[in-house]
Amino acid sequence: MKKATIIASIAMLFSISLNAFTLGNLGEFKFEKMNQNVYVMHGPETEPSKENEGFMNNPAVIESANGLIVIDPGGNYNVGKKILAEIEKLSSKPIIAIFNTHKHGDHWFANKNIKEKYPEVPIYALTYMIEQVKDNAAETWYGILDRLTGNLEGTKPFTFPSDGIENKQTVVVDGETFVMRHYSKGHTDTDILIEHTNSNTLFIGDNLITNRFGAFDESSSIIENIKVLEKIKNQEDGFKQYALYVPGHGQSSSEISETVDPFLKYLKIVLEGAQKAYDEGMASYEIKPEVDENLKDYHSWDAYEGQMGKHLIKAYSEVEMLDF
User: Fold this and answer.
1) Parallel, antiparallel, or unpaired: how do β-strands 60-63 and 68-71 relate?
2) Taking every annotated instance into account, which residue ranges of this chain make up the domain Metallo-beta-lactamase (predicted)?
3) Does residue 226 lie in a domain region?
4) Beta-sheet pairing, 193-196 with 201-209
5) How far apart are CA 143 and CA 149, in angstroms?
6) Domain presence at residue 287
7) How far apart are CA 70 and CA 277, in angstroms?
8) How many domains does the chain have?
9) Are residues 127 and 164 in contact, defined by beta-carbon separation less than 8 angstroms?
10) pLDDT tens digit sequence for 153-192
11) Is residue 304 part of a domain?
12) pLDDT per residue over 215-232, tens digit each?
């Protein structure tokens, strides 16, 4: 009996190793079936680093009758090899389409891995996103990720998205229906939120992040990001209750309170602090201790110390601009 148990345990461990890859001390990463034909690999909830090799987003795969559709395949060529290998463990079907949710390279630089194997695969992204990455956004993100991870070798030349899409456009791939939503600003000015109607799943991209913080660049808006998340939460502008909510970073969930609410609450607290400081003639740094106290539930999120103050400054500048 003991021998059988040992053999079973070894078999289980071997099975796990065949279905995951490891990054330093961050653990194993593999695709999990989350909803009907939807699989998500939840990347490390950390900023880009040498330890995570530049991988921290949530690549997703939708299995159709005849192929696989990938959303945000990852952030560089080297990790892209590992992610592609995990995709191929899900099914022997070919990859027949890719979607990129926005211009930041940590989500789409691994397009290259898939395009090398499937040269005819269409890569969908907002038309304006394609213009931006071909202009300078790709080089900007390459510089950021290369400096922080040292793991961008092989990523160039970039594999840009090929097929432009627009707000409220519907794309059907092998019987799988995807509805696009774009707002002029949010996490960036190039975001698409993707509703997969077959499985009732909403891919929110980096308009939603949990357990870690990232930067808001010059094309982003904290105020508009809040509005997008409130539309989702309140089921406005065509949004509804979904069976699965997938953030750009952090854990997916069927419960909106577990996914949307935490980041939305964080952004609202930051904005309320910025508004109070502006109304009372204070600088953003003067209100920071009070905001920090109000955000004690978020102190454990990755990069809180490095990002919260920047978010407060950003929110303050947006409040100020509304007064002009």
Assistant:
1) antiparallel
2) 56-249
3) yes
4) antiparallel
5) 10
6) no
7) 44
8) 1
9) yes
10) 999 999 999 999 999 999 999 999 999 999 999 999 999 9
11) no
12) 999 999 999 999 999 999
